User: Which sequence fits this backbone?
């Protein structure tokens, strides 16, 4: 469409190097692409692919130890590599704006959001005084913030994550830039919020004739909102093509593997693996229906959690806080999990799914209701005294953030050994070590990595350590709290398969907590949809996915971006 | 960005220390100075040219010479030997005081940070109460009340330093009490005390160690200060604070070496410990580097 016009941004043969104490690391190697006026370009890649570094080089905001080692960077005829710092300051914000991943860190916590928008305009001499305020309110309206006059006076901590990201976008648009670079703008936001934000960016771009670069790890998101996609891996461009061509006829093997690994509605868990993986052909035994009619393993009845009001009531001990006050996070939910069954718990942030899993784990005391595990009521035992309870070993947990869940001063082996030492009858150094090695084999963690510290392991390896620790005591019920949310899609594919295999191998039940229905569908037979502390829909996963009964479940499903079905996939299905 | 962090992740701790030392030569100076102080404390009385307590009226108040490097005092004692011998006592007082306040502060602080609630409120108020006093005056009061001994100087110095350790430990424990690995430890069947000891405390150790090193110089100064005003160590025991106090009387009459040399020793020791604290902080956390 823009063959005649000169490109707005052209990057030619860009190489970026970082000087570290151990020598030079090339983060980006010979990258070239162009951005036409009004175009939306997606840069897709897994962590470490150099996608962010490319955009930092373009804005000349590389860290002190990084430098453009070769290639040309041009913005509508201006040579960005040779531009003076003064020129760059004018270009940043006024011509090219950037939205960062975490909106909260991008905003100054002690200034009102409206003032922050004014600051940008004053900095670039766009507007000042009353005009600036008027324009700031207009901008807040542009980014679809309700009640902009009132929100002008809000501080960042008073706004939700989605609202903060809208403010950041308003900041980026304040000086009417011509290019908007969005670096993972919706990571960490709910799918419905993500859809609302991305739809808005798309509309604004169309209205104002903006060119957009969307940097993301999510192929589905890029496919939904971009016209052209550049796929990057390890600092190099693997493939660049129009969206339709890319999915219809992916050229590079890496692109094919990436498309395959992205969960979609009709995917199977084996289908996520790369084409050359031997496990692809093996049947997924976990999908066999659970034996019906058996006593439920876990039975949750009328479970309620009320957090006391923020003020905490009176500090005087004799003035008891009224228990009806405060925030009801979980509001009388009931469900069962059969032995060997895998149940998905789906909902957006703040719906109470984490509180529910913490209560079942007995890390949090219940306000009301009962939790029965294999006929034994656990809700009566205080969380503080549960550590030495015999039922402790039967309930285990896999954390969302594997990095945070491993003690930075423990080796992988020590992390896995912890539950073995405390709660099992395996005693003696050699026997514990053997058990740890067996567990490492089960989760596919090379034994040579056992003596490393968490910071020396990759994200996928840390996830494996977390899973090995959780299965160390042969638990009956494993709660998985978005165990793959922080992982790259290719790693996610492998970890999901590992979880499916472990379940059949060890006969565990899963409660899989997630916001992503596509992922839940891959691993679970049954789905519970939670909203505002209540379960609003319950049913077999395939049924909820195909024909959701509630409006909310439908919205969740529709908001999840999905790559268009590729020819490749159809061939695999046939 | 990720490439770079992944790269750094593979670096072994030892090469990290070497890197810090070569990047910042001041830390080499600090470690060399520390070695000299420790040598003086251990071998000082052995290598001293004269007996630090032996008086010799015939050579009293002599200026620095080849025979007496730092000169002699009013009783003819060799100032150099006395400065060397004093290193052991001063270092012993400060190490014991810092060690004591480290242990007490770490226990109080990490319990307060981990348990929160009433534990936190009570210990917090106690710590605030200590902080409300001018600390040196509080130390003077404690020594005056308990009696003029070396042990009491140690106790007094330890008590006034506890709040610093308690606060660091509390902050470090509080940010980790809800960390994933602490939850995971609970799931593995660890009791609260065990979690504090094996999960929380080891992670709070690096900033505590830095605090201890920075605090060391201050503790020496405090002990010397108490001796200077006549509380604590008594003459004729060689101690830097007393030597400065005694020497101060002679400055007007021109015998400057009596006060200057122990004063210099005191100053250089405090300076070395402060530099060492900075170097330790660089090793523990290179991002905080100034």
Assistant:
């Amino acid at each position: 469409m823009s063959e005649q016009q000169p490109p707005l941004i052209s990057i030619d043969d860009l190489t970026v190097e970082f000087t570290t104490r151990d020598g030079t690391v090339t983060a980006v190697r010979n990258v070239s692409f162009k951005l036409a006026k009004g175009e939306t370009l997606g840069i897709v890649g897994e962590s470490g692919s150099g996608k962010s570094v490319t955009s930092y080089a373009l804005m000349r905001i590389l860290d002190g130890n990084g430098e453009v080692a070769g290639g040309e960077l041009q913005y509508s005829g201006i040579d960005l590599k040779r531009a003076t710092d003064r020129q760059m300051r004018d270009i940043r914000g006024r011509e090219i704006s950037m939205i960062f991943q975490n909106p909260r860190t991008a905003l100054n916590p002690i200034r009102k959001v409206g003032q922050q928008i004014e600051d940008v305009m004053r900095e670039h001499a766009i507007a000042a005084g009353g005009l600036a305020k008027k324009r700031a309110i207009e901008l807040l309206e542009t980014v679809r913030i309700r009640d902009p006059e009132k929100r002008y006076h809000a501080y960042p901590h008073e706004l939700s994550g989605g609202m903060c990201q809208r403010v950041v976008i308003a900041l980026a648009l304040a000086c009417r830039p011509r290019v908007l670079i969005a670096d993972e703008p919706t990571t960490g936001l709910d799918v419905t919020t993500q859809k609302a934000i991305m739809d808005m960016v798309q509309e604004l771009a169309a209205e104002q004739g903006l060119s957009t670069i969307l940097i993301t790890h999510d192929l589905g998101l890029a496919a939904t909102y971009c016209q052209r996609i550049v796929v990057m891996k390890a600092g190099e461009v693997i493939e660049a093509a129009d969206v339709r061509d890319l999915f219809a006829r992916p050229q590079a093997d890496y692109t094919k593997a990436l498309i395959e690994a992205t969960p979609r509605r009709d995917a199977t868990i084996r289908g996520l693996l790369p084409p050359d993986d031997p496990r692809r052909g093996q049947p997924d035994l976990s999908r066999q229906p659970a034996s019906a009619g058996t006593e439920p393993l876990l039975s949750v009845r009328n479970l309620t959690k009320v957090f006391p009001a923020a003020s905490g009531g009176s500090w005087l001990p004799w003035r008891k806080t009224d228990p009806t006050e405060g925030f009801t996070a979980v509001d009388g939910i009931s469900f069962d999990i059969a032995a060997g069954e895998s149940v998905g718990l789906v909902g957006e942030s703040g719906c109470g799914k984490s509180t529910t899993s913490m209560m079942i784990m007995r890390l949090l005391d219940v306000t009301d209701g009962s939790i029965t595990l294999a006929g034994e009521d656990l809700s009566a035992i205080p969380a503080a005294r549960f550590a030495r309870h015999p039922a402790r070993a039967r309930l285990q947990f896999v954390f969302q953030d594997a990095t945070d869940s491993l003690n930075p001063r423990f080796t992988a082996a020590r992390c896995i050994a912890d539950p073995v030492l405390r709660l099992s009858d395996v005693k003696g150094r050699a026997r514990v070590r053997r058990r740890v090695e067996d567990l490492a084999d089960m989760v596919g963690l090379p034994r040579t990595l056992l003596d490393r510290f968490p910071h020396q392991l990759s994200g996928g390896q840390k996830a494996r350590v977390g899973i090995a620790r959780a299965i160390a005591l042969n638990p009956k019920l494993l709660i998985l709290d978005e165990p793959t949310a922080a992982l790259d899609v290719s790693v996610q594919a492998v970890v999901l398969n590992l979880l499916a295999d472990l379940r059949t191998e060890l006969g565990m039940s899963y409660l899989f907590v997630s916001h992503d229905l596509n992922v839940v569908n891959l691993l679970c037979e049954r789905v519970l949809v939670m909203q505002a502390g209540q379960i609003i829909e319950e049913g077999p996963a395939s049924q909820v996915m195909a024909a959701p009964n509630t409006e909310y479940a439908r919205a969740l499903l529709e908001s999840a971006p999905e790559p268009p079905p590729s020819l490749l996939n159809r061939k695999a299905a046939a | 960005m990720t490439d770079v962090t992944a790269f750094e992740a593979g670096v072994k701790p030892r090469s990290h220390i070497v890197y810090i030392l070569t990047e910042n030569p001041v830390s080499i100076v600090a470690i060399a100075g520390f070695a000299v102080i420790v040598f003086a404390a251990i071998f000082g009385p052995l290598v001293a040219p004269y007996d630090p307590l032996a008086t010799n009226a015939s050579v009293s108040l002599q200026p620095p010479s080849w025979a007496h490097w730092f000169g002699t005092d009013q009783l003819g004692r060799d100032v150099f030997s006395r400065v060397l011998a004093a290193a052991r006592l001063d270092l012993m007082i400060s190490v014991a005081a810092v060690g004591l306040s480290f242990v007490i502060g770490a226990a109080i602080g990490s319990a307060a940070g981990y348990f929160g609630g009433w534990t936190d409120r009570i210990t917090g108020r106690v710590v605030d109460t200590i902080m409300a006093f001018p600390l040196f005056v509080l130390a003077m009061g404690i020594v005056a009340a308990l009696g003029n001994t070396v042990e009491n100087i140690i106790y007094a110095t330890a008590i006034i330093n506890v709040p610093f350790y308690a606060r660091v430990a509390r902050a470090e424990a509080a940010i980790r009490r809800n960390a994933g690995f602490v939850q995971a430890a609970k799931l593995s069947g660890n009791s609260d005390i065990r979690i504090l000891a094996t999960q929380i405390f080891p992670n709070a150790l690096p900033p505590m160690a830095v605090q201890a090193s920075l605090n060391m110089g201050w503790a020496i100064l405090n002990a010397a200060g108490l001796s200077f005003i006549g509380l604590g160590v008594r003459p004729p025991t060689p101690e830097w604070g007393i030597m400065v106090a005694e020497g101060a009387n002679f400055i007007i009459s021109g015998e400057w070496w009596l006060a200057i040399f122990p004063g210099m020793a005191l100053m250089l020791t405090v300076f070395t410990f402060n530099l060492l604290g900075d170097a330790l902080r660089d090793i523990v956390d290179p991002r905080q580097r100034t």
